[in-house]
Write a structure and sequence with these properties.
There is one protein chain. This protein is of the alpha/beta class. The chain is 29% helix and 28% strand. It starts with a strand and ends with a helix. The strands form six sheets. It has an eleven-stranded mixed sheet with strand order 3-2-12-11-13-14-15-16-17-23-21, sandwiched between helices.
Length: 453
């Protein structure tokens, strides 16, 4: 099969990125890619820790054109870095600031060549493995999933087509480019649609608004439910955008409606997983049904559910509870009810942690919260649900009364523990291990002090 171009920006002067108010051309990008690729040290595997999204993109492209593979673990903890080194002993790290990891390090060049017209757009073999992403292995060792260039391109092109993203759009992301969602929607989708990416990764609501306002329209905000909620609560006035994209956790219809009203733009959610990449989207304000991306469908075979077609290289099993909205064993539309691991059965009554979390976070005064099934080794070995909640203005009694109005009493959390913040990741996800560790610590403190829930 024919190779695919690295970028869809056909003119050297086309804007490929924005840094504050300064445009960066495709010609400049290609010159930097060639410059960085020529300086990379030996080693086929790379951990790209550049914090600047544009520099991350240049480094990623330099690795692609030089035949290297970018490793994209879910975290960059010292233990995860050690595991990457065990998986790929030749791995080195690319940084644009202090990295704090024990790996051979290549620092992004401070001086870059001027743009020129002499750099042709590289053509990349569709079968080339350009990245490895990781899920948690059953043994605790990260399980790698290879990503080929052709499948990634087809995936993000399908996303751009679904969302109507084209060469005139500017895309700002609040998620790190090292995350699969950030890689697809804030790096590869701009490169493969001719759009321009924003170099920064603003975190605080005021910074997000300022960076959005600095971009030309039409502009797109790529974010998460956690970041979106903080943005809506913190900022009285929001800059207009033309599209909002959300992923990493289910978004409530109420939050989607508020976001669309405040920003004056449609909001679309993306559904997918590490193994498959993006699978489907929905406009949350219009209903709960998901529509698969072009060429993708779901197949039910007995109790198993598979995603296949489109950019998916091999039929891949899904771990979510999904209800087809069409007849037959194949479907391109469905409802998502959560993960099998989230199902809860207490006293013969069934629900899901996703449903309980939705009800908890919909209560006025709750800034953040999560239901948990305590581990078997928790301090008091309780057999009921627990909840961690950030709600400075509420008392446990008031919160319990509010929950009782929406959920069956058997699912009321005991203990109900108030915290200052939940240990969320940079994408707004709440790692299960981190939440369980916090719960275990709080239960130990409660037991030691004789407190009751």
């Amino acid at each position: 099969m024919s190779p695919l171009p690295l970028i869809a920006h056909h003119r050297p002067d086309a804007v490929l990125a924005w840094r504050s108010n300064t445009p960066i051309s495709a010609g400049q990008f290609l010159a930097e890619v060639a410059h960085v690729a020529g300086q990379l040290p030996p080693g086929r595997h790379v951990l790209n820790l550049c914090g600047d999204r544009y520099r991350f993109t240049v480094a990623l492209a330099a690795c692609i054109v030089s035949g290297r593979i970018s490793l994209l673990p879910s975290t960059h903890t010292p233990e995860m870095v050690r595991q990457m080194q065990r998986i790929a002993p030749d791995v080195f790290c690319i940084v644009d600031q202090g990295a704090g990891v024990e790996l051979p390090t290549f620092r992004y060049p401070e001086s870059v060549p001027p743009p020129g017209d002499g750099h042709a757009i590289p053509a990349i073999d569709r079968e080339q493995i350009v990245a490895q992403v990781f899920t948690s292995g059953s043994t605790g060792m990260p399980a790698p999933h290879a990503k080929r260039w052709g499948n990634l391109v087809r995936n993000v092109q399908a996303e751009a087509q679904r969302l109507g993203i084209g060469a005139d759009h500017a895309i700002l992301g609040t998620v790190p480019p090292q995350h699969m969602y950030g890689l697809e929607s804030t790096v590869l989708m701009p490169l493969q649609s001719g759009a321009a990416l924003h170099a920064g990764r603003p975190f605080y609501p005021a910074d997000i608004c300022a960076d959005l306002a600095s971009l030309p329209r039409p502009r797109v905000l790529v974010t998460t439910p956690y970041h979106l909620r903080a943005l809506l609560e913190d900022q009285a006035s929001l800059p207009a955008v033309d599209q909002i994209v959300s992923a990493t956790a289910p978004l409530s219809q109420d939050l989607a409606n508020e976001a669309e009203s405040r920003f004056g733009a449609p909001l679309h959610e993306i559904y997918g997983c590490t193994e498959t990449g993006q699978l489907a989207s929905r406009r949350t304000s219009a209903g709960a049904e998901w529509q698969t991306l072009a060429g993708v469908h779901l197949r039910r075979k007995g109790s198993a559910l598979w995603a296949e077609g489109g950019h998916i290289e091999h039929p891949t099993g899904l771990n979510d509870v999904i209800e087809f909205t069409g007849d037959g064993p194949l479907s391109t539309t469905f409802l998502l009810h959560g993960r099998h691991a989230d199902l809860v059965n207490i006293a013969g009554k069934r629900t899901s942690l996703a449903y309980l979390n939705h009800q908890l976070n919909a209560i006025p005064g709750v800034a953040d919260g999560v239901f948990l099934l305590p581990r078997e080794d928790s301090a008091d070995r309780i057999g009921r649900l627990a909840a961690l909640v950030v709600a400075p203005g509420l008392t446990p009694a008031a919160l319990t009364r509010a929950l009782r109005a929406h959920i069956d009493p058997v699912f009321l959390p005991r203990p109900l523990l108030f915290v200052d913040a939940l240990p969320r990741s940079a994408t707004g996800k709440l790692p299960s291990q981190a939440a369980q560790d916090l719960l275990a610590l709080l239960l130990q403190v409660r037991s030691a002090t004789g407190m009751t829930a």
